[in-house]
Amino acid sequence: QVQLVESGGGLVQAGGSLRLSCAASGREFSRYAMAWFRQAPGKEREFQAAIRSGGSTYYAGSVKGRFTISRDNAKNTVYLQMNNLKPEDTAVYFCAAGLQVYDNWGQGTQVTVSS
Q1: For residues 27 and 74, which has the higher predicted lDDT (pLDDT)?
Q2: Where do the H-state alpha helices sit in 5-94?
């Protein structure tokens, strides 16, 4: 089990950038696949990006080319760099971790993009 704490959300204008961070507890962070999901008001939580323990990355089509996921195993932290933000990116962003399935979740951080 790991505990996850997200930070870096906020209010930004369309076209701007934000970098989200997710700090994880535990000594085996490097073994975990890490991911970012988001949930907009009235919508289901949806996958945005993932990074496996070996460094392979995966993205949802709507954010590919705009968002970049990375990890720093020395700091037990995963990042989501978000560029060219759009109003439709407004959501609560959640960090998730797992060995087989994503069964560890953070509390989320709000991202609001104004037009």
Answers
A1: 74
A2: none
